Amino acid sequence: DKSAGDAEKVTYKVGTEPTFPPFDTTDEEQNIVGLDMDLIKAIGKDQGFEVTFENLSFDGLVPALKAGNIDIIAAGMNKDDKDRQAQVDFSDAYYESKLMVAVKEDNNTIKSVDDLTKDMKVAAQTGTTGANKTQELQKQGKIKEAVILNGLDTAMLQLINGDVSAVINDKPVTEAYMKKQPDKIKMVGEPLNAENYGFAVKKGNTELVEKINAGLKNIKEDGTFDKLVDEWFNK
Ligand code: GLN
C-alpha cells in the first residue's frame, strides 16, 4: 500500500555489471540482484529515494555516470583508484577487498603470481583493477597475454576449460564462483593489493553522496548492513 508521499520520491538509476556475485548478480528471471543492490535499496529507504538498476559493462559504468545516463554506480568498485577518483566522487567505503590469482583446482605448478610464465594467458574483467594488474604483467613480459573479457562468468569458464592459466579477480567474488562450481577453481599466493569498495556518483553531486553516506551510516548502526552481508555471503 502506497502512502501519499511515495509519489514524490525521487528515483535514481543505479548502474552495475552483474557477473560479480555476491555483490552484483542476476536471479532466475534475469533481474539484477545482489548485496550492492540490497545495500543501495536500504540506503534509499533510509534516505527517501528509490532505485532502478541498469546492466552495463564494467568499463561502461564511469562513462555512463559522467554522461548522466545513470546516477549511482553500485558495482564492487574500488574507490582507492586514483584514475577513478579524478572522474567520479565516491561514498564512504563499505567493503574491504583484495585481488587474488585464481587457477584450476588441479593446477600444481602455479602457487603464486610469481609462477606465471611467458607462455601463459591470464584473464580478467574489462576496466577492473584485476585487468590493470593483468595488463601490467603482460607489459612486464611476465605473461604471454592479458585476456580482457566483458563478463567475469566468461573468464571463470575459460579458466575451467583451460583456455587461460589464471584469472585475476576480487577474492570474495572468486570465492562465490568457487561455491557455485565446487572443486574447479582455487586461489593461490598472497593478495596482490588491498581495495575498498565505494558507491560512485557524478563529480560534484555532493547532495547525493551525502545522502548515501548518511544512509550507509544508519544501516550500519541499525544492523541492516550486517544482516544483508550475512545473507548474501551465506547463500
Ligand atoms: N573491485 C574491482 C574494481 O573495482 C572489480 C569490480 C567488478 O568487477 N565489478 O575494479
Q: Mind explaining what this structure looks like?
A:
The protein has helices at 35-47, 61-67, 82-85, 129-139, 152-161, 171-180, 206-221, 224-233; strands at 10-16, 25-26, 32-33, 49-55, 72-73, 88-90, 95-97, 99-104, 121-125, 145-149, 166-170, 185-188, 195-197, 200-202. By secondary structure, the protein is α/β, with parallel strands linked by helices. It is globular, with a radius of gyration of 18 Å. 34% of the residues lie in helices and 24% in strands. It has 8 helices and 14 strands. The strands form 4 sheets. The chain has a 5-stranded mixed beta sheet, sandwiched between helices. The chain folds into 2 domains: 4-96 and 196-233, Periplasmic binding protein-like II (D-Maltodextrin-Binding Protein, domain 2); 99-188, 3-Layer(aba) Sandwich (D-Maltodextrin-Binding Protein, domain 2). The model has no long low-confidence stretch (mean pLDDT 96). Helix 1 crosses helix 7 and helix 1 (35-47) runs antiparallel to helix 8 (224-233). Strand 9 (121-125), helix 4 (129-139) and strand 10 form a beta-alpha-beta unit. The structure holds glutamine.
Number of helices: 8
Largest sheet: 5 strands, mixed
Q: From the helix content, strand content and strand pairing, which structural class follows?
A: alpha/beta
Q: What are the bound molecules? A: glutamine
Considering DSSP H and I runs of 4 or more, what fraction of the residues is helical?
Answer: 25-40%
Report the count of strand segments. Answer: 14
**CATH H-level name of the largest domain... which superfamily?**
Periplasmic binding protein-like II
| H/E topology pattern | EEEHEHEHEEEEHEHEHEEEHH
